[in-house]
Amino acid sequence: MQVKSNFLSANIISFILKRCFLPAAIMSLSASILAQSIDNLPVSPAVIFESLALNHDIATKASPEYRSPAALTPSNDGRFLYVAEQTAKQISVIDIVSGRVCRRIKLPNEVTGIAAAPGGRLYATCSSDQWPSGMVCEINSATGKVLRRIPAGFGARSPVISPDGKILYICNQYGNDVQSMEIAGGTVQMKLRAFHQPFSAAITPDGKILVVADCLPSEKSTNQEAAAKIFLINTAEQRTDKVISLPVGSHSVFDVTVSPDGAYAFVSHLVGIFNIQASEVEGGWVHTNNVAIIDIKNRRLLNDFPLDDPHLGAANPWEISCTADGKLMCIAHAGSNELTVIDIPKLLIIAKVKSTAITFDKGQKFIGCSHDLTALSDVKSRVPVAGYGPRAVAVIGKRAFTAGYFGDSTGGDYIEIFTLARGRNATKPAGKISLGPVQPLNGTRKGEQAFYNGKLCYQSWQSCSSCHPFARSDGLNWILGRDPANTLKNAKSMVYSWWTPPTQWSGKRTGAAVSVRLGFQNSLYSKIDYTISADIDTFLMHIRPVNSPYLVKGKLSDAASRGRDLYFNNPVLDCVKCHRGPLYTDMKLQVSGIPHWWDMLSKWDTPSLIETWRDGPWGHLGSFDRIEDMIRYKGHSTCMENGLSEEDLQDLVEFVLSL
User: Positive or negative CA dihedral for 221, 226, 230, 232?
Assistant: First the structure.
């Protein structure tokens, strides 16, 4: 039954408009117009609340508001700590002296990063999987007022401010570019293409070099040298001076920070040992969890170190922070729930002495210390934290601050504080600060936490997210299982995996539920936990794709619209024979027509085309780094052979990349 919308009170109208962050004058005018015209519109009051709930602007019993601290940024004077509570769409401001939250700043979208500028301004990047088109919010830190909203790119994150406070740099993860803007006018000065999902950036103290980290490899997965890249960008000339490859198999690069003297960049990442069968996790023979050292002056990878120990992994290193004197480095581990504290001067001595060392083990070649699990034994200390999935760490003076993305073992949301000191076991807990009351975890949140939990793995070497960062592909080929007949296959995205059985390229497993349970045995090397498996099931059920950056204001471009018409109506095209239905898959095994000498089979599971723009390289071997090349390949498609023009091909590609 519909009712007149005059049931919507002035308070509700005001609340809705405030969530839109309109200027005061426009908000007043909008409320007046809405109040005058709303009586003539038959709308159920529930629609408003349901819309806000779906947008995660109000909490519900089924979908509580979780904080998810994703970044910690100190003020320039060290008096305050700014907490990016990502899924709560807010910044909590902590007074370090009183140890309390003194202000909360609501923002229009999820907070993906915070930069503190001279003069008390904050610049927060906002973007989410639901609303990926990014923006930067300029905030008066003293009042919490949002002063400006500046458009940014798709998946905007990791804001960095130049030392003079005039330029803002932003990584647009989904747009695959890095942009700089002049803060005073909000105008874009530079936009440089990256390779594959730029995730983090840091700038040297003199402002001359911006260091940018790509999250994933960009090469074809059949390239046995595949690895993520680091970019050294000359800020004055607005160009990339050097592209540095991390060690073979590097992926999930989640942070980069520059040493206080500007000489080095430290990079957290994983190294996948993907060129051999993934049958033994102990000793780092599936993944190691590393920190790389970039020599900025000489523009080279100086060395790379596992943060693991021989019999204990340090799963999923994330954010890095250094003390101002350059003596200590802290790294948060989201998978193993700990901090690693490293003596930087001693680290650099080892890095230089062993920078050219070459070792061979199990047929693999390692340069430097990238697989030396004892190299840091005397220069690091591992500090357990109560937080679940800590992604962020900040250092103020001689104290480190961190927070669990999923809360902590005491059932609260806290900032944990540690007093830093050089030497093994010298760093000690120094208290905690409450972020406020917590919400109970629902099934989806429990499953998400489990997906990122390296503690579920034997010896804490990896989590589900190690091979499937953010439940997508890591861009590498893997030989899974213990069967010697198994061959390399590209890691698959988890998007809609629950709804598109079978799973695995070979279709060996009948569905996602089977894969989750066997994943405990074959990927985490532990016993199946059926309760946690059910939570992961729920998480997988609720994963939703991110809107494509190829869309124009949420709609297909003219070229993509033409491509859609070709896809469904042109008899020359054969795509729809296998990629059909709302999820663009027939959920059957088909001859892909993409042979390789190590393939034992000819038929493979038809993948969904949803989020194709994000999932490259493509094919069960990841042997195509451009969709158009896959369509051109005669064994896979007869489109070109049947007379599809080059112009139509580009329209078709535009459509597929818009899904």
Answer: negative
